[in-house]
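ok here's the first one, seq then struct tokens
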Amino acid sequence: MNSKLDLIYEGKAKKIFAHEDSDKVIIEFKDDATAFNALKKAKFEGKGELNCLISSKIFEFLIKNKIPTHYLGLKNNNSMIAQKINIIPLEVVLRNIAYGSLCKQTTIQPGLVLEPPLIDIYLKNDNLNDPLLTKDRIKLLKIINNEDLEYISDMTLRINKLLKEFFYNIKLNLVDFKLEFGYTSKGQIVLGDEISPDNCRLWDLNQNNGTIVSLDKDRFRNDLGGFIEAYSEINKRINNFI
């Protein structure tokens, strides 16, 4: 990384650097793995590169399918160039199958197929542990207007249809995923952040005995082992498919 470029922001999994073009940024993916709002931490050599490469290919796929994103191209294997955006402080989670926090917080049983898919929206605030929001709370907080919120929800459903098919083609079941959006300098809402096994729950469809085999951050979260191997397998399947 060019030391002359200023570090704008450092998060749990990525660093964002200034670009020579003030309307762009460089996003560097770290080898850090975190879970439970960073209460659990570890480093895995090669994780950043895998997430960057996986995200870049998925962004390219979505762009081809007319989804606006911040992605502009790879700088190297663990850094991408992206449009500079003002991130909307919301985490949009789409659930195709009930699992994880949804089942811990309700009486819904794990494994229930959700038809239609469920969209949960959380406040992006680590200090508050990213609380679940209602539309009225979003309005009260003046985070985003109703029209833009509907646009984000509609885009999330479109992205879900595309990603479900994409992952199905590489024998993965897309259980749920988290998206973040932001405004460009021209006021357009685009998909930001990353799309990787860090923020997608992916189950291996090659397992035909009813056993859930996670190929995502649950391997780290739940001490299942084979964390980097799972990410490497996803990258390999995507390369073989594209």
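and now the second one, same deal
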Amino acid sequence: NTELIVYGSTKPDARVTIQGHAVRLNPDGTFRLRLALPDGVQEIPVRAARADDEETREITPVVTRGTR
């Protein structure tokens, strides 16, 4: 079994989603999430939005795993 750890930081009152699921932020705005990483290509959309929705940032890392 393989896992991918996604971590980062933002403003403490921001909203963060990874693959469409809300991520709970620590009081200082940091976060850490462990994702299962099956074989194949995985797109992992990450979105952060300010509390007032005036600014958003999005990235979509693409990870490939192959087991022989």
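notes on #2: The chain is about 0% helix and 55% strand. Residues 4 and 35 are 5 Å apart (CA to CA).
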